Amino acid sequence: MKIHVISDKCQGHNRCYAIAPELFDVDDYGYASELGDGEVPSGLEAKAELAAANCPEHAIEVTR
Ligand code: SF4
Fold first, then answer.
1. Which of 27, 37, 61, 62 is 20 to 30 A from 44, alpha carbon to alpha carbon?
2. 47, 22 in Cβ contact below 8 A?
3. CA of residue 59 to ligand 1 center, whole Å
4. Global pTM value
5. Model confidence over 13-50: pLDDT tens digits?
């Protein structure tokens, strides 16, 4: 599983980072990006799905 933050859509709510700091980084303004290459480590799939579902801007892509 992979995640990707679509930067054009991200509005910096910081929710993804609050849910899954293991998967996301945020800059000083709260705009998010996936950590590393976006590969979701085993065991964190549910957190990745939760973060994507809770992004109000639908800015998190999840691919399998
Ligand atoms: S929850 Fe969505 S809009 Fe908010 S920082 Fe994360 S990716 Fe960006």
1. 27
2. yes
3. 6
4. 0.95
5. 899 999 999 999 999 999 999 999 999 999 999 999 99
What is the length of the chain?
Answer: 64
Q: Which atom of ligand 1 is nearest to the CA of 17?
A: 6
Calculate how far, in angstroms, residue 15's C-alpha sits from the geometric centre of ligand 1. Answer: 6
Which one-letter amino acid corresponds to residue 40?
Answer: V
Which residues form the pocket of ligand 1, taking CB atoms under 6 Å from any ligand atom? 5, 10-16, 30, 32, 55, 57, 59-60
Structural fold of domain 2-63: Alpha-Beta Plaits (3.30.70)
d(CA 57, CA 61): 11
Q: Hey, what amino acid is at 33? A: S
